[in-house]
Write a structure and sequence with these properties.
The chain is of the alpha/beta class. The chain contains 14 helices and twelve strands. The longest helix is centred in the first third of the chain and has 14 residues, at 8-21.
Length: 392
């Protein structure tokens, strides 16, 4: 499929970015100068940050005894620090409030650029020699790396990002996001170590110490004994409302699981309490509603103890996968070939039957959601059938 025609606004932005990038030049890192201090730029939320962890682990393993003190430092939004904070394959994690990723109303249009130069001033003092822009279209992050004086800048060769890079990497549409990450990070390896092998590492998340005890206490207070009771988790929320399934359908799924001898736990982040409460109110059997009551670390420990985790496409399904728990995800606008369970086969997917799915668009305003029911129209019977298979 050819790329969509760029709008006049996008064309103008591209011309301006090319003009601003002229100031930084295109100095290449000398081949005999391996990286010493690497900044990994990933502005996203839970799911995308988790999908980056297999390549980070693989990179650290490939560097192995030849690392010679190479430091890997991640820079993420404050909303994502918990995902990478305890990653044993990173040396440090710092934060920046990346514009466009806060999931809040836009502020002053000048603010993102004021932030860019302020953040660049701080990064310049850290003396990074290499930066990797791990999101394919993140021109702001590429500009940040250039303004920070980082001499070696790796990212995907897409129009708005490439002008700020010293080493653009061809972007291959159709690859899973986890594999795209590895295609970038292996650029940090010597030429004789780039063997083109596929990525097979699983997602990685290490909860904070003490999280397991807190999770077990929370479950016990909710009537579930983790060492004895079998239970499933339903996480009905997601970062985009267009991904959500109907609450009454989740209640029907929960009822079937309960009838098969499984207790039911509902989870959700802050602000999703009303969603889980609506599901719980439609259940005529006990349900443990933990929405808004867990940190990411405690939630990971809850998911680890579950027999199955279900929900629409979201970072929480990837969190469950990182803990070795089977998942069942509902997909519509997002393509499971690109953002589905990792490694392939570690979770099941129920895909919308709409002809336009996956469209890749998640930003429909609330007033238009009724016209975009690709996930909400997924048949209840299909989800129940898949759940039964996974619980056999």
């Amino acid at each position: 499929m050819p790329p969509p025609e760029r709008t006049t606004k996008e064309k103008l932005r591209h011309l301006l970015l090319k003009a601003f990038a002229q100031k930084y030049g295109l100095r290449k890192r000398r081949p005999d100068s391996p990286p010493r201090k690497v900044l990994l730029i990933r502005p996203d939320h839970v799911g995308d940050l988790l999908l980056a962890t297999p390549s980070i682990r693989r990179l650290r393993r490939e560097l192995g005894g030849d690392s010679n003190g190479v430091r890997l430092v991640g820079i993420v939004g404050p909303w994502g620090k918990a995902v990478w904070r305890n990653n044993e394959f990173l040396d440090d994690v710092i934060t920046c409030r990346f514009p466009g990723f806060e999931r809040t109303p836009k502020r002053n249009p000048i603010a993102p650029y004021v932030l860019l130069f302020r953040c660049a001033s701080s990064l310049r003092k850290r003396d990074f020699d290499t930066a990797v822009v791990m999101r394919f279209d993140h021109w702001w992050g590429a500009w940040l790396a250039a303004e920070s004086g980082i001499p070696h800048r790796i990212g995907f060769d897409v129009p708005d990002v490439a002008p700020f890079l010293t080493d653009p990497v061809p972007y291959t549409p159709g690859l899973h996001e986890a594999e795209q990450n590895w295609r970038l990070l292996q650029e940090l390896l010597p030429a004789d170590r780039k063997d083109g092998s596929r990525l097979a590492d699983r997602l990685h998340f290490s909860p904070e110490p003490g999280s397991a005890a807190r999770a077990e206490k929370l479950l016990q207070e909710s009537g579930i004994e983790p060492s004895r009771d079998r239970f499933i988790v339903i996480h009905p929320g997601s970062g985009a409302q267009v991904k959500r399934w109907e609450p009454r359908k989740w209640a029907a799924v929960a009822r079937v699981a309960y009838q098969r001898g499984y207790k039911v736990v509902l989870t959700g982040g802050p602000g999703e309490e009303s969603l889980t409460a609506e599901i719980a109110a439609d259940c005529d059997f006990p349900v443990a509603d933990l929405a808004g009551r867990t940190s990411l670390d405690v939630l990971a420990e809850v998911l680890k103890r579950a027999s199955l985790v279900m929900g629409p496409d979201s970072g929480i399904l990837h969190l469950a996968s990182s803990q070795g728990t089977p998942t069942l995800g509902l997909y519509g606008p997002a393509d499971p070939k690109l953002f589905g369970p990792w490694p392939p086969g570690s979770g099941k997917v129920v895909m919308s039957h709409w002809d336009c799915a996956p469209c890749g668009r998640l930003d429909f305003p609330e007033s238009e959601l009724e016209n975009h029911r690709c996930v909400r129209d997924i048949p209840l019977e299909e989800v129940i059938a898949e759940m039964k298979t996974l619980l056999e």
